[in-house]
Design brief:
Elements lengths: L4 H17 L11 H15 L3 E8 L2 E9 L15 E2 L4 H14 L28 H5 L9 H6 L2 E2 L6 H9 L25 H15 L3 H13 L31 E2 L9 E2 L1 H12 L3 E2 L2 E2 L3 H7 L18 E2 L5 E7 L2 E8 L4 E7 L8 H12 L2 H6 L2
Antiparallel strand pairs: 1-2, 1-12, 3-6, 4-5, 7-8, 9-10, 10-11, 11-12
Amino acid sequence: MKIKSQQIVLAVSSLLASMFSSCAPRSSAPQSVNELDAYIAKEIQAAQYPGFSVAIVVNGKMVWSKGYGVTNLQTRAPVTADTPFMIASVSKVVTGTALMQLVEAGKLDLDADINTYLPFKIQNPRVHGKITLRHLATHTSGLIDNQKTLAASYSAGDSSVTLEEFLKSYFTPTGSRYDAKLNFATSKPGEQFEYSNIAIGLAAYLLERQTGGNFDAYTNQHIFKPLGMNNTHWFLRDFKDVSSIAFPYDSEYPDLTHYGYPTYPDGQLRSSANDMATFLAVMMNGGTLNDTQILDTKTLAAMLEPQFPDAPKDQPQGLFWTFKKGGLIGHAGGDPGAGSYLYWNPDTHIDAVVMLNTAITEKNSSGVANILKTILRDPTTVGLFR
């Protein structure tokens, strides 16, 4: 199963730019939560999303969540706020949180040469320069996505290729996936922003090397279980009932099924709106929720500091987080049959998690764009949850 993943990533980025650049409120905003519910349902129906889930967090507390549509067009099982969806690149903020836990514990250094931690050496053959975790976390490492190779790595079900195997074959000159021109940029580390899934996969591998265990097991022990995120897993095999997961639908891939890939920490997480709202609430509360601390407040603040301001890019970049026009902070995700958004508005302290089981395209983008604008931008909607 081959996937043209970059096309979806670019589509999501383009749509987000237009989505968040317009701050004008709607002419007739919902005047109650029931009206907001009806408005969202209408937008979903018009956009023809099979399934959709949303959660709203205000002042670090989830105040409302709901599912719409169906998880599967054949079974017609209804979506709830506990339905797991593939959240694509929103996974990166979870991956980043795990990595920053190790930074906080002194087990990883943001500015150390990554080769300090690796069993094989990575050297950009086109330019010289020390590559660090900070570069990986901000898409400025010069290690880039070879789209053909990444697309070929998608497979039905969980991938049989391990993260370590894939990375070694991709970055070492004798590896079967090595390409000196397509796997590496001509810019030195820190000079140029180029969105890189492979860099986030590599960052997660650094955690494996420092902990001696698998990345998925680490996040389960140190993030998901402590927070009660029971509907969140990286692999299909970890779900008791795979049929409970929202099935991916994509007109470009009519034979699409649940899938996976070796660099899973960059986008393969499946989670529910309620679970990700819990994760978002932790971030809003400075790294702690209900006496459970995931990150120190100072560590979280460091993640939200703009990095490499001189590196050309379309928006400021934090450590694993992005900043959008109008002050929104968060991340978006897009993959075949999957779209997800996790954003908060620091000015209003209202935050949203949205996920759907179809890819966002120019034809169907208005629905999710309008819903996010209404939740995050409209002052009337903000007032509903005060």
